[in-house]
Amino acid sequence: MKGFQLWVALPPELENAANASQYVMPEEVPVEGPVRVILGSYRKARSPIAAPMDPSKRVIHAGDISEVGKAVAAAFSARGRLPNGSVLSVCGGIYSWKDFASTLRALGHNLQVVRVPAEAYDRFFPGAPEVREMFQYFEEQTYFGPRREAHIAAAKALVPGGFTTFAHWARTHMNLIADASASTSTENRVRPGTTA
To answer: How many CA atoms lie within 13 Å of 151's alpha carbon, on the beta-carbon side?
Structure first.
């Protein structure tokens, strides 16, 4: 399975609300000219994912979903050394939407991140104002909340090698340039931004 999960936490007053998740397949990401719109809109293309938050703020914790198991195994191995109620936050890094876009652009993906104004976001779908409030909470506290450093440190202490960064994961799973190079001969290779 290939996947990179973004964790999104709710403000305390919404923690017991109905859960929700959003899966976007590659073919569902809209394209406008050379741009893939992952978040926000560009010209006539609008992403199915929207966030009314500053795309440059590093408040999104992300980690390779395949590494959750090694944290769980380490926690079971720790037995009595891990106090009851311990929170282990598996995290390869803390990112902004622009960080994700920049990493993917370096790998040959054409995309842009655009912030959606709160008043526009609130009209996107039923419940949008509550989701907007959640994103505003992330801007203030990040996904893992006010004790994020302690929770991340606890997981990293159990797994000394740490966790995969988004850049490393993307080079392994989303590298268009390397994929194109492997399937094209050197004399016929066209680099992004050039013509044959």
So the answer is: 16
Contacts of 133 (CB under 8 A, 6+ apart): 11, 14
Beta partners for residue 62, in sequence order: 6, 93
Whether the model clears a pTM of 0.85, i.e. scores above it, the answer is no
| CA pair distance 38, 31, nearest whole angstrom | 9
pLDDT single digits (tens) 105-144: 898 887 777 777 888 888 887 888 888 888 888 888 887 8
Those residues with Cβ within 8 angstroms of residue 66's Cβ, 6 or more apart along the chain or in another chain: 1, 3
CB 115 within 8 A of CB 54: yes
SS (H, E, C) the chain: CCCEEECCCCCHHHCCCCCCCCCCCHHHCCEECCEEEEECEECCEECCCCCCCCCCCCCEEEEEHHHHHHHHHHHHHHHHHCCCCCCCCCCCEEECHHHHHHHHHHCCCCEEECCCCHHHHCCCCCCHHHHHHHHHHHHHHCCCCCCHHHHHHHHHHHCCCCCCCHHHHHHHHCCHHHHHHHHCCHHHCCCCCCCC
